Amino acid sequence: MKVLVPVKRVVxxxxxxxxxxxxxxxxxxxxxxxxxxxxxxxIEEAIRLREAGIATEVIAVSCGVAACQxxxxxxxxxxxxxxILVETDVELxxxxxxxxxxxxxxxxxxxxxxxxKQAIDDDCNQTGQMLAALLGWPQGTFANKITVEGEKLxxxxxxxxxxxxxxxxxxxxxTSDLRLNEPRYVTLPNIMKAKKKxxxxxxxxxxxxxxxxxxxxxxxVEPPKRKGGLKVPDVQTLVMKLRTEAKVIE
Amino acid sequence: MSILVIADHDNNxxxxxxxxxxAAATKMGGDIAVLIAGGGCQAxxxxxxxxxGVTKVLVADAPQYKDALPENLAALVVGLASGxxxxxxxxxxxxxxxxxRIAALLDVxxxxxxxxVVSPDTFVRPIYAGSAMATVQSNEKIKVITVRATGFDxxxxxxxxxxxxxxxxxxxLGISTMVGRELTKSDxxxxxxxxxxxxxxxxxxxGEAFKILEPLADRLGAxxxxxxxxxxxxxxxxxxxxxxxxxxxxxxxxxxVGISGAIQHxxxxxxxxxxxxxxxxxxxxxxxxxxxxxxxxxxxxxPELVKELG
Lengths: 250, 310
Ligand SMILES: Cc1cc2nc3c(=O)[nH]c(=O)nc-3n(C[C@H](O)[C@H](O)[C@H](O)COP(=O)(O)OP(=O)(O)OC[C@H]3O[C@@H](n4cnc5c(N)ncnc54)[C@H](O)[C@@H]3O)c2cc1C
Ligand SMILES: Nc1ncnc2c1ncn2[C@@H]1O[C@H](COP(=O)(O)O)[C@@H](O)[C@H]1O
What we know:
The complex is a heterodimer of chains A (250) and B (310). With 250 residues, chain A is of the alpha/beta class. Chain A has one domain (2-223): Rossmann fold, CATH 3.40.50.620. Chain A has helices at residues 37-51, 68-78, 94-108, 127-135, 188-196, 204-207, 235-244, and strands spanning 2-6, 9-11, 33-35, 57-64, 82-87, 112-116, 139-149, 152-159, 162-169, 172-176, 199-202, 215-221. Chain A has a nine-stranded mixed sheet, with helices on both faces. In chain A, strands 2-3 form a two-stranded antiparallel sheet. The longest helix of chain A has 15 residues, at 37-51. Chain B contains nine helices and 16 strands. Chain B folds into two domains: 2-166, HUPs (Rossmann fold, 3-Layer(aba) Sandwich), CATH 3.40.50; 191-309, Rossmann fold (3-Layer(aba) Sandwich). Chain B has 310 residues and is α/β, with parallel strands linked by helices. In chain B, strand 14, helix 7 and strand 15 form a beta-alpha-beta unit. The radius of gyration of chain B is 21 Å and the shape is elongated. Chain B has helices at 16-28, 42-49, 70-80, 93-105, 214-220, 228-232, 263-266, 286-289, 298-309; strands at 2-6, 31-38, 56-61, 86-90, 110-114, 116-119, 122-127, 132-138, 143-147, 163-166, 176-183, 196-200, 223-226, 253-257, 274-279, 292-295. The interface between A and B is large, with 79 and 89 residues. Strand 12 of chain A pairs antiparallel with strand 8 of chain B. The structure holds flavin-adenine dinucleotide and adenosine monophosphate. Adenosine monophosphate (AMP) is lined by residues 6-8, 36, 38-39, 61-64, 92, 94, 97, 115-116, 118-119, 122, 124-128 of chain A.
């Protein structure tokens, strides 16, 4: 079976994000960009399925600006077989991304889509669930372990109280959580190989999808600052302050 | 205006976050209906009818809703949606799973994890691990929203007497089944609702070492949490993770032990009222946001603290 893995280009998780002074968003010019960490986990999982002889082909898809090609090259270097960029300069919201991905699924016919649980920039946690809805497929969110069992998929999910296991009919969508696997390092020979792998570019129009944003961001501001930083010399002082100053303990 | 709140429950009791979601709904204005979809969920229905401020409880009691599978549940909600201006869910694992599916089926966008209601169509939500706050407006016909519990004080569990109305159950789509639950057992308060949280990080060094936090948690009546590093290392269960991609907590007191204070961790706890940090590295970023920092070896300080608290 073919496996589809969406990958998003985001501000690297190590970057200290700054809010623009005009309140329109965060500073992204000259900032290090990387693949959303959850998508690295998804690619790794898809490759493991291929190595196990279950997946026949791993297709990475990114939606966004031309620079997303870099993200796709990373996916190819980790081991994806080919890549698709749905190129647009429009600010994409999860519903639009889900529609684009659905169109790609309709075209490519994968039996499994492994989506990241959450993009670390918008923190939406929506796209995988939306894609599943649009396709009418079952969904296994926050996957911690997956096993293909014939025409079914067993998914252990990280939920609020612990773990839950569901069995989904294939085709299905899963969203990857942190403990699904530990992605491998990209090696130099694989980066070289990735340059020769196919990367197709298509436009939303060609997929018949309207990507116009539905939500308007009115402003973006910095969160209120905490005034911390006080250090106490010893445990006695700490407990005294907790009792008399902070009044959080009796 | 009419708001539907999708309850997170286990057929018997309501999850606390449901009460915070109702609180957010109250700020949107309009009548509030709560949906209890479950199997053998009459106890949860009674609990929902007693919530202060709820006008109506819609009940879909059928086996196909017992396990809260999102496929069946979203299909049910979509059938009910036309009468509502807002569909609100708590941003719990359950709400995060089902709500976007509802939104997509309705062809509307979702606003995730709001922490403030500015007006019935405008909301504030954190982005970039809480490094920025976005004010977002939705012109969708139905606003689909998830609510971050820490942004809204829970409404009272009692005082209401809502009308109870059965709704027709939909078909079992039969595309997913629940086969098992391994829930972490604990006598401690639930992490996201606790007044005090004691969390350990990689500095604990082992799962065994977390035992030294237990007397402290006992003394403070605290829930226990952890950083991602401690969970990844297998010291403690996954559901203890606090942070951007774990649980969001805002207790009266948060004690961070052997946690460096990465932005992804701070995202989950920096709205706590009082923060204590115990760390041997006096430059650890956690100290910048801690109200009371104490530099030293946690294996010495934690037992001392327990003793001093008496
Ligand atoms: C996509 C993504 C999502 C993430 N989501 C989360 C999340 O939800 N939650 C989260 O927590 N992290 C998350 N992280 C990870 C985060 O970036 C940090 O790696 C993590 O929080 C570090 O955990 P830590 O502070 O326990 O470990 P470290 O950073 O290794 O810190 C350990 C600390 O312990 C101290 N220490 C060691 N020994 C002792 C001792 N004997 N006494 C006192 N102090 C001691 C050290 O000085 C150090 O400060 C995420 C990362 C990514 C990429
Ligand atoms: N522009 C995009 N291109 C490709 N995949 C995306 C894009 N946006 C979101 N995704 C996928 O959806 C996941 C969750 O994103 P979100 O719903 O925005 O939190 C990401 O981890 C990606 O797998």
